[in-house]
Amino acid sequence: MNNLFAFLFRYRGMLVFGLLEVLSVFLLLRNSDYQRAAFFNSANAYTGQFLALRTRVYDYFRLVEVNKALMEENATLRQQLYPPDTARRVAAVLPVRQDSLTQARIQRLGRPDSLLLGLRSLPTQDPAYPLVPARVISNTLRRVDNYLTLNVGSRQGVKPGMGVVAAAGVVGRVKVVSENYATVSSVLHSKTAISAKILRDGTFGSIKWLGDDPTRVLLDYIPRQNRLVRGDTVVTSGYNAVFPEGVLIGRVESFVKEPDKNFWTVQVRLAPDFSNLTYVYVVANRAQAQRDTLTVRAGIKPEGGQP
Predict the structure, then answer these.
(1) Residue 130: what pLDDT?
(2) Does the structure show a pLDDT above 90 at 215?
(3) Alpha carbon of 208 to those of 153, 184, 296: distances in Å?
(4) What secondary structure does DSSP assign to the chain, as a single string?
(5) Which of 61, 79, 109, 184 has the most neighbouring CB atoms within 10 Å?
(6) What would the pLDDT profile of 255-286 be if each residue is shown by its tens digit?
(7) Per-residue model confidence as pLDDT tens digits over 55-101
């Protein structure tokens, strides 16, 4: 306590001066509209700069959370682009009386919100290809068989055999899954085959990697009588149920007729940049189990599938 009194007594002049300065500023601002407006405008400017700096620092340290939220939102929006397998089926609507509530509802909506197929009601708005956002934590490019590692696993609903896509196009297929991680066979893998088609005319083929250039793949089984155009868009066909129909793979870069083959040798430049993959989506097909079971029973190897 003695030290406090000694301090106040020693600096009493400065303390009184500071108190009088504060009091004079207060009186000036209180009795002058112009000075009060100028003061608060200046104070707001400095306060705004401080708050903006604080916000930038805060946002920097929460970028991971922001990116995760954006990925989840993108996944929700993207899965709406993928048509379900039942999209081309026509619902058989039983005749009902014109004055019934059901008929009025169908006329109002233009289409039913569910289809009765095989005694099972399927919601038409339910996404057939739900997406799981993921981050690439490991990626190889220069091997014969290249893999990616994702930071999602069985806990997030990921299973072996699911497809993986990026914003730019097809990436690969899930091979092995642990609780929180998944290993993906990249498109740049010697045993990866993807059922594809040329968007312009619907010609079907199969995508394979030749094992050298990580930016190009081969489109097999395009008949020689077909007319090809450089720049043709190549997308997934939807035949093997791993990927939705219409997901971008790449564009035709060159094509050659070889005398000993009945098909074009077509080189496709991949749409995704595999040297710069950061965020991807794991694609789940709700109907894949049924299709795989039917294929196994029939003894047919899926087009563009993997051994």
Answers:
(1) 81
(2) yes
(3) 26, 16, 23
(4) -HHHHHHHHHTHHHHHHHHHHHHHHHHHHHH-HHHHHHHHHHHHHHHHHHHHHHHHHHHHHTHHHHHHHHHHHHHHHHGGGS--TTTTPPP-PPP--TTSHHHHHHHHHSS-SEEEETTEEEETTS-SS-EEEEEEEEE--SSSEEEEEES--GGGT--TT-EEE-SSSEEEEEEEE-SS-EEEEEEEETT--EEEEETTT--EEEEE--SS-TTEEEEEEEETTS---TT-EEEE-STTSSS-TT-EEEEEEEEEE-TT-SEEEEEEEESS-GGG--EEEEE--TTHHHHHHHHHHHT-PPTT---
(5) 184
(6) 998 788 888 989 999 999 998 888 899 988 76
(7) 677 767 777 777 777 777 777 777 666 666 545 444 444 444 444 55
pLDDT class of 205 with cuts at 50, 70, 90: very high
